[in-house]
Amino acid sequence: MTNGPRPDVVADFRTGFDTIKRYPVIAAPPLIAMVIGFLLKWVFLGAGAGMFLVGGAVGGAAGVAGAVAGGLMLFLVFIVLVMLLNLVASAAVVVMARDANTSREPSIGAAVDAVTSRLGAVVIAAVIFSVIVGIASLFFVIPGLVAAFFLMFTMPAVLLDGLGAVDAISRSARLVKDNLGPALGLVIGAIVGMVVLWIASLILNVVPILGPLAAMLLAGAFFAYLTVVGVRVYLALPRR
What we know:
Number of strands: 0
Oligomer: single chain
Shape: globular
Order of helices and strands: HHHHHHHHH
Radius of gyration: 21 Å
Number of helices: 9
Structural class: mainly alpha
Number of domains: 1
Largest sheet: none
Distance between the termini: 5 Å
């Protein structure tokens, strides 16, 4: 059990901004994942196009059918790789945010090592989170949002407290239930920030080429910022 002053979420948002300015490397993992995902897309598109060309030229209708099946398999592999890549990147930001919030120099390599050492729990937790939120969302949007709200600390619980996937789910739900005020403050602040990000992205995307690139960089920095704030709140929440 951890007792102490309740987190000041407004102060956490201000401190998170200062942390990102001091350690901009925290924003790197999601941006690196975006770049790798973009490159993978073209690799898989090229491989798929090659399969269709060879299948059509050599095998006729049967070759085209085989190429379609192979293309579908390639697409599924691509989706799984991109999802795993983005999961590792987002989890690495959690570890780096913990280091930055405890006055340690964040390191991409050390963060990725920490995530890969817990990769099984990270993947299982992400799958359970998605299933719970997905099933809840079948009953209109609000139950899904409520589920996501109560489970938002699942990944910090896995990576920072070393819990298994199921225990991390339980820890997150319990923490949010016991600390509704700070949790709501975090979500409201995130929503306000996302609205600002959306407006800024609309403006930036008006500029050809450089605008979308700047919007992508801004989105990566904003995700890292929210993670820093979220981890800061998580670490400060009293445990019962």
